Amino acid sequence: MAWTYILESEKLNKYYIGACHKKLNDRVLAHNSGKYGSQRFTSQTSDWKLILRLECEDYAHSIRLERKIKSMKSRKYIQNLLKYEDMRQRVIKQTRDI
């Protein structure tokens, strides 16, 4: 199982979009602990909260979905993903069929 996920930092007022194929909770803890190095975006704070997780068929699918969401470059798009289940299902389907 793989995931595309969105984290939110209230301190930074920012979102982070990522993908993983391991335990998602461990991944969030790693972001908050600075495991990925001091030069990474998520190392700026340790208040990252998981606000959305999207289950994918495999890791390749989760990467495609991550890139699709990032390509939108829109806070509003992320907020709409959080709000609308049909929008989430549509983007999952779009990236599955590539």
Automatic annotation (TrEMBL):
<feature type="domain" description="GIY-YIG">
    <location>
        <begin position="1"/>
        <end position="79"/>
    </location>
</feature>
<dbReference type="InterPro" id="IPR000305">
    <property type="entry name" value="GIY-YIG_endonuc"/>
</dbReference>
<dbReference type="Pfam" id="PF01541">
    <property type="entry name" value="GIY-YIG"/>
</dbReference>
<protein>
    <recommendedName>
        <fullName>GIY-YIG domain-containing protein</fullName>
    </recommendedName>
</protein>
<dbReference type="InterPro" id="IPR035901">
    <property type="entry name" value="GIY-YIG_endonuc_sf"/>
</dbReference>
